Amino acid sequence: MASAANDYDVELTGLLGELVAIPSFSGEEGAVQDRICRWFVDHGIDVDIEEADGGLQNVVVTIEGDGDGPVLWIGGHCDTVGIASGWTRVPHASKIEDNRLYGLGSMDMKGGLAAAMYAVRELSERSGEWAGKVIFAALADEEAYSRGANAFVRKERGIDAAVMCEPHFHDVVIGAMGKINLRVEVKGRSAHGSRPEEGVNAVTEAAKLLVAIDGLERFSHPDFGRASHCVLNMTSGDGRYEIRVPDHAAFVVNWHFMPGETVESALETLRNLADGLNSRAQFAITVGEPRYESFMLDKDDGFVAQFAESYRRIIGKEPDLRFGRGVSDANIFAGRAGIPTLLFGPDGANMHAGDEWVDLDQLHLARRTYLDFALRFLKSKNESTMK
Ligand SMILES: [Zn+2]
Hints:
There is one protein chain. Helix 7 (302-315) packs across helix 9. The chain contains nine helices and 19 strands. By secondary structure, it is of the alpha+beta class. The longest helix is centred in the last third of the chain and has 27 residues, at 360-386. The model has no long low-confidence stretch (mean pLDDT 94). The strands form five sheets. A six-stranded mixed sheet has the order 1-2-6-3-7-17, sandwiched between helices. A four-stranded antiparallel sheet has the order 4-5-19-18. Strands 12-13-9-14 form a four-stranded antiparallel sheet. The structure holds zinc ion. Zinc ion binds next to helix 3.
């Protein structure tokens, strides 16, 4: 038995090395997705290619167990950020040193994705041991606009729980902050610059709102602290020198929010501030893409409890269930589409930086945890429905 597990480990490391060696910057995932498709087909598992915006695609695999049961999603994104400075190794050469696999995307998150692929393959081979459905997806564009995840959740699939295989090994993330960009357009009225009282200066009116935004007292969550926001930029005019009262200005506020706050409440807050100015200018406030709602799972949720049980069994300690401060496709799944989602996968170091690596022990432990959890989740729900 031990040698079988070792074979799996060797094969999984090999697959990860291959995936890392294929460049897949956001929006250019085609080649790595081809490889993922081929791998499934080689193992007798059917693959669907689903369209996403901008000509992008998601690779989707659905396998069925023995009879009706819950639907579990597992997977993640297959794109990477660009090549950061500070690489002392070749970013797409996937080199193993000291039980670490180095390469761009090794940690974020081809490690988790490869481990999930192996878990799906084993579940497919053992389909008589569980009930329901497992859906895997290799999503495009997470590091940019999450166009892959947004396309994926547009279709209703009845997913009961999702494991996003992002690099969170010691800290299992069960909730995350939200982040949106609020674009404010300010419309004034032009007049000759020597008679400013005859116009409505969009820039000075925008400045009044900016000062009000700066002074906002934000919501504070008892466990996760205070939400924050930051004005990113401001534009006005077309760069020409003109003695004219500017009739247009625009700025973008990057708005981070906690569970308990919503996109609608953010819009309402800014609209109320603008209304309170009693300005003669008009303010139009909209939400731009990418857009990430916040989410928070209950620690006592059955899904979380069952995952924690598998984590204890395979990893041998209590999982540290955390709230994350970064956004990911999990915000789209959980925050936007309402799919209970947690983030767990092999970790390493230097993500989005030079010499990124993933820990190979964690890679193999993650695969075993995914499998143990899937068998537990897909069986226990089935058993409880039989009562
Ligand atoms: Zn990631």
